[in-house]
Amino acid sequence: MVGEPLSPDPWRNVDAQPDAVRLATTLELRGRTPAQTRLRRRFLRFVPIRPGARVLEVGCGTGVVLRDVAPMVGRRGSVVGVDPSLTILKVARTLCAVTKGGRLTLRRADGTRLPFGAGRFDVALAITVILHVADPLRVVQEMARVLRRGGSIGLQDQDFGIVAVTHPDRVLTDRIMREVAARIYVEPHSGRRLPGLLLQAGLTRVRLLTDVFQDTTLEPWTKTFLERRAESAVRFGLVDAPTAQRWLDGFTALVAQGAFVLTMNYYGAVGVKP
Description:
It contains nine helices and seven strands. The chain has helices at residues 20-32, 34-46, 64-73, 86-96, 136-145, 170-184, 194-200, 220-235, 241-257, and strands at 54-58, 78-83, 103-108, 121-127, 147-165, 204-215, 262-272.
């Protein structure tokens, strides 16, 4: 609606953000981080993605997952990615142009209103998406609608209730990490709720894969993640700008000592359409 205030979660409406291109860059930074690549591909094998499959990804972003899936389905398969953001899709089209494997299509669409007929896909994916949507059940129900009987839905999300990070000031760190997440996301603990969401949507044979992202060197994506948490803490009035900068400097000092650690739980749930 015109005049409606923006959600504190920038991923709800990327195109309305002043730093939309920066958000797209963040997706690629995360996608190319080795530990993220390993846990993402483990989940795709867990689903599993088979040769010849017709796969839909809801909230495809810049195409990080699509570029993994296309070679898995091979030339007999097909991959479709949908995203509501024109900015993100423009980046995705460029990055996916030379992807090898199955036919790859990108479309602008909202996950609550998928522009496909019933039973079209063998697999439907939403990876690090459910955390950000206003109505998760409706999205999963739409994914189930376009899935054939016996097809699988795969959901994967991080869980901001289980983020461990070293810092000299534990009280400040806990406050920033906990309170910023609580102000941005309707459900910061999205990951652990995915199996229940699949069951609520009518899926059966639900399975769960728990994985951990680990960083001991302050990878570029982790650095960006912490910087955005600091910016948000200032914006929400949790700390002032000098305190936020001192907090970030504390991580830099730990990296120089070889003592930096950040881990984050990821949950991947898979269910079958009866």
